[in-house]
Amino acid sequence: MISNNILSFAKSVLCELLEPGCIAIDATVGNGYDTVFLSETAGADGHVFGFDIQEEAVKQTEQRLNEECRPQNWTIFHSGHENMLELIPAEFHGRIDVVMFNLGFLPGSDKTVITKSATTLVAIEASLGLLTRGGLLCVAIYAGHPGGDEEDRAVREYCTALDYHAYRVIQSEMINKPGYPIRMLFVTKL
Ligand SMILES: C[S@@+](CC[C@H](N)C(=O)[O-])C[C@H]1O[C@@H](n2cnc3c(N)ncnc32)[C@H](O)[C@@H]1O
Fold first, then answer.
1. Could you tell me how far CA 44 lies from the centroid of its own chain?
2. Would you say the CB of residue 83 lies under 6 angstroms from ligand 1?
3. Which of 11, 53, 68, 109 maximizes ligand 1 atoms within 8 Å of its Cβ, making it the mutation to test the pocket?
4. Atom of ligand 1 lying closest to residue 54 CA
5. In the list 7, 32, 52, 158, which could disulfide-bond 64, CB 3.0-4.6 Å?
6. Is 80 a member of any domain?
7. pLDDT attached to residue 119
8. Is 170 contained in some domain?
9. Which atom of ligand 1 is nearest to the CA of 119?
């Protein structure tokens, strides 16, 4: 796979890690592209939980899943990802293989509806608790929109402070892209 953006790079990493039957969370479903990828990867024996605060995003994602993915191995919540601990059934706690966050705003939609560091950090902490050992948290961070810079700093500060004996954190970045940085953090739970 040619990784021509940070998300396709993350997906190529996930293709190596994930197996059919995996359990995944898409913390920001948006237009549903990442959710479809996770649903296809999880297959009939796996499951994908998705979150978004925008009804439009939830509808768009469900439509895309219905059109492109068989079987129906997903549950999409019209709710903030900061509520994932309460909404994901207890039987899946500690069994999640991957959590994807694609921060910022929904492309083609209202650019003032953005992820915010306060709720993003609550959700990242919850995600780390939900992951299985060896599970991966991926966070795509964009610093170019109003509020993005602050969220970028807050998320990287949080992940930098994670205990090295419990988590491994790798950061990748498009370093020749003009303008604001686009980063991907990969956090593996040991
Ligand atoms: C960059 S978009 C996601 C793109 C998406 N992964 C895709 O494949 O199209 C970011 C999304 O985060 C959503 N969002 C903002 N705050 C949120 C929150 N607290 N919980 C869940 N989603 C949130 C926005 O509504 C927006 O749809």
1. 21
2. no
3. 53
4. 25
5. 32
6. yes
7. 98
8. no
9. 19
- Domain assignment of residue 71, given as a range: 1-87+122-131
Whether 52 is covered by a domain: the verdict is yes
**Probe target for ligand 1 pocket from 6, 26, 28, with the most ligand atoms within 8 Å of CB:** 28
Q: How many domains in the chain?
A: 1
Q: Residue 104: CB within 6 Å of ligand 1? A: yes
Residue 2's pLDDT band (boundaries 50, 70, 90)?
low
pLDDT given at position 1 = 53
Q: Is there an atom of ligand 1 within 6 Å of 122 CB?
A: no
d(CA 37, CA 40): 5
Decide: 148 in ligand 1 pocket, CB within 6 A: no
Paired strand residues for 184? 140, 172
29 strand-pairing partners? none
The gap from C-alpha 20 to its chain's centroid, in whole angstroms, comes to 18
4-63 pLDDT, tens digit per residue, is 789 999 999 999 999 999 999 999 999 999 999 999 999 999 999 999 999 999 999 999
Residue 65 lies in a domain: yes
Q: Exposed, middle or buried: residue 64 (CB in 10 Å: 0-12, 13-18, 19+)?
A: middle
